[in-house]
């Protein structure tokens, strides 16, 4: 394992220059916020005055200045996670490891802290390895995403590449919402469910699977379309997410503008491709 070009494999954990944020926070219950944040510095023999200065500096980064004298049981979940994050960066690590750090928090706090963690690592210039089962979280916070399956890497790349150009059926089904539709390419044009689909140029003919994302379908305005019956309709604010069962039995999912679409379960609906879907071969 190389860190800044130095092999840290055999180095003691305390000498590797890593900070760790646990899913369960793992704060010391008998220590104050200040003592928790300064723990790594204290065990290295740092002077008390230097520790106090660093604790105040890091606490300000994560908005904990007013809570330094409190104990973990006096804090909310979000505040405890901030303490865990502050403790991990107090010793100025070269790499920050985060093990599903937001899994125990409610949705609103999770979104806010997600953005704060990204902003903080950018500000400090720390390389962060962030483990999560939340696909949206992974796409939103990362420069690069690694999708793993049974201990093996399925695909690695920028978030946009993982989402828009999945390398396998597993990645396509695991990351984001989408419908896998089997089809064929003839004359460079993908065909599936009785219609031709838009696509990039230069596609070789043969069997294929289309990965159709909800935002890549729209209400049909004449011409060839996917026709079916609405099985589910969910209001998501800006979008109305509908699940439509086609005559073939395939269920496609589409995001329609909620202000323009009034769709109920049982309605007949016609959809057409609004963008080129990702295409899997083999």
Strand percent estimate: 25-35%
CATH architecture of the largest domain: 3-Layer(aba) Sandwich
Whole-angstrom Rg:
25 Å
Strand order of the largest sheet: 10-9-8-11-17
Distance, first to last CA: 35 Å
The major pleated sheet works out as: 5 strands, antiparallel
The tally of beta strands, per DSSP, is 17
CATH topology category name of the largest domain: Rossmann fold
The count of domains is: 2
User: Helix amount, in percent?
Assistant: 25-40%
Structural descriptors:
about 280 residues, Rossmann fold, five-stranded antiparallel sheet, elongated, single chain, 17 strands, 2 domains, alpha+beta
List the helices and strands and how they pair.
Layout lengths: L1 E2 L2 E2 L10 E4 L11 H5 L1 H5 L4 H14 L15 H14 L4 E5 L7 H18 L2 E5 L3 H7 L3 E5 L2 E6 L1 H6 L4 H6 L4 E8 L2 E4 L2 E2 L9 E7 L4 E3 L6 E10 L3 E8 L4 E7 L10 E6 L4 E4 L1
Parallel strand pairs: 3-4, 4-5
Antiparallel strand pairs: 1-2, 6-7, 8-9, 8-11, 9-10, 11-17, 12-16, 13-14, 13-16, 14-15
Helix pairs in contact: 3-4
Question: Care to describe what's here?
Answer:
By secondary structure, the protein is α+β, with helices and mostly antiparallel strands. The chain has 2 domains: 142 residues, Rossmann fold (3-Layer(aba) Sandwich), CATH 3.40.50.300; 105 residues, RNA polymerase II/Efflux pump adaptor protein, barrel-sandwich hybrid domain (OB fold (Dihydrolipoamide Acetyltransferase, E2P)). 27% of the residues lie in helices and 31% in strands. The chain is built from 8 helices and 17 strands. The strands form 5 sheets. A 5-stranded antiparallel β-sheet has the order 10-9-8-11-17. Helix 3 crosses helix 4. The longest helix is centred in the middle third of the chain and has 18 residues.
């Amino acid at each position: 394992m190389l860190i800044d070009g130095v092999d840290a494999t055999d180095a003691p954990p305390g000498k590797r220059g890593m900070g760790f944020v646990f899913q369960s926070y793992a704060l010391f219950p008998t220590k104050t916020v200040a003592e928790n944040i300064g723990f790594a510095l204290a065990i290295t023999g740092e002077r008390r005055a230097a520790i106090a200065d660093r604790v105040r500096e890091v606490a300000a980064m994560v908005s904990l200045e007013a809570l330094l004298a409190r104990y973990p049981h006096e804090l909310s979940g979000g505040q405890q996670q901030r303490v865990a994050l502050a403790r991990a960066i107090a010793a100025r690590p070269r790499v920050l490891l985060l093990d599903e750090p937001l899994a125990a928090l409610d949705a609103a706090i999770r979104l806010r802290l997600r953005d704060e963690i990204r902003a903080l690592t950018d500000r400090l210039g720390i390389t962060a390895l962030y483990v999560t089962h939340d696909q949206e979280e992974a796409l939103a916070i990362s420069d690069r995403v690694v999708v793993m399956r049974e201990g093996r890497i399925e695909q690695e790349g920028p978030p946009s590449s993982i989402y828009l150009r999945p390398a396998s059926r597993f990645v396509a089904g695991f990351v984001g919402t989408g419908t896998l539709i089997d089809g064929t390419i003839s004359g460079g044009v993908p065909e599936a469910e009785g219609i031709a689909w838009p696509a990039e140029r230069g596609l070789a003919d043969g069997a294929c699977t289309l990965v159709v994302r909800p935002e890549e379908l729209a209400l049909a305005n004449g011409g060839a379309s996917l026709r079916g019956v609405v099985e589910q309709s969910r209001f998501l604010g800006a979008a109305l997410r509908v699940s439509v069962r086609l005559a073939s039995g395939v269920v496609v999912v589409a995001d329609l503008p909620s202000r323009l679409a009034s769709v109920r379960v049982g309605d007949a609906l016609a959809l057409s491709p609004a963008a080129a879907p990702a295409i899997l071969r083999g």
